[in-house]
Known about the structure:
The protein has helices at 3-6, 38-46, 56-62, 97-104, 138-153, 180-184, 202-205, 217-222, 239-253, 257-269, 295-306, 321-325, 383-404, and strands spanning 72-75, 107-114, 117-123, 133-134, 275-278, 291-293, 310-311, 314-315, 330-331, 337-339, 344-346, 351-355, 359-364, 369-375. By secondary structure, it is α+β, with helices and mostly antiparallel strands. The strands form 3 sheets. It has an 8-stranded antiparallel sheet, with helices on both faces. A hairpin with a 4-residue loop joins strand 11 (344-346) and strand 12. 49% of the residues are buried.
Amino acid sequence: MTMRSRLWAGLLPAMLLAGCASQSVPPPVAAQPTPVNAEESARLRQAGAEVLFWSQEQRDANFPHMERLFPGNIARAGGKVYPLPAGAPLALGADDSAGRYMAANNTAGLIVVQDGKVRLERYARDYAASGRYTSFSVAKSLTSTLVGAAVQDGYIKSVDDPVTRYIPDLAGSAYDGVSVRQVLTMTSGVKWNEDYTDPNSDVASMYRDAPPPGVDQTVAYLRTLPREAAPGSKWVYKTGETNLIGVLVSKATGKSLAQYLTEKIWTPFGMEQDAFWMVDAGGQDIGGCCISVSLRDYARIGQLVLNDGVIGGRRVVPEGWFAAATRKQADIGAPDRGYGYQWWTNADGSFQAQGIFGQLIFVDPARKLVVVMSSAWPKATGQDMSAPRAAFVRQIIAAVDAEAK
Length: 405
């Protein structure tokens, strides 16, 4: 019996620019899902919510090593690494604020990059620069970037296209009349429950039942959901819809998310280490979750956005894509905050990718600043955890501003 078969562990089931590429794009060849044997497939469906209820010991042990537990695909790093040279150490005070924050908040990795230079880099909890760490919903922002790449390449003609154009199995469901843009902004109007404490919520249970033959696991579940509001009229956070975006990209390009990520970003941009992207019980990369990346490569994702998606003089996304993706597209009911194309937005122009249990890529274009944290919080989310993190980010910003005076 393999380690994977011995361990009980679960998966998280958990575009303003339209335009077409000028070149002719051949029809995609259907992406082949990663082979997942029957035993693995059944276990992944049955254990969908269990990762949400791991003990602290399990989180500490498993978050840096998800590839030991689950099947997945690899995005290959390139031979030439995008440089992140050392900069002047960031002065956060003589009381080791970074170390105290990390210890108090179960943070395993922290890096601060400003103007392309590493100002602070710390590891703890048996994590190291040579390792990888899962990011949960940080993957959402990367999946939306692959939509931009598919628009640039002409595989997706417009984000105003109906999502059923690319996923015909959704026809006749609540997704009729919903655009790609509305799925990107989580304003489809389809009803969804994202409660991480409820084992019967949609996010916890969407992979429990086997789909009909020939139908994607995510599509099979989402097409059963009812509509609760008109498309575009209501924002609700839905991991399932980012999984759907991943299916859309794979169907449009004929490639797995990891393969397309390798071709468009990971190899050409110069990521330092391979990335591991978990797959669901049907072998599809999970668009809304579960890519494992090194701390410095998470920082490079932030740098890619600051570089406006230009790699070696060539655009990986349409001009203006990130300006749209990281601008408030949907009102989330929180002062000074919003939601873009799978990025959380702030009124001051900064934005972030974030995932449960304390995962973060914070980007501040005005200061050319990227802050990354990889953590194993004692619970998935909560104001008692997010408020100290926000305060620490503000401390980093204050230190940067003090130097500029």
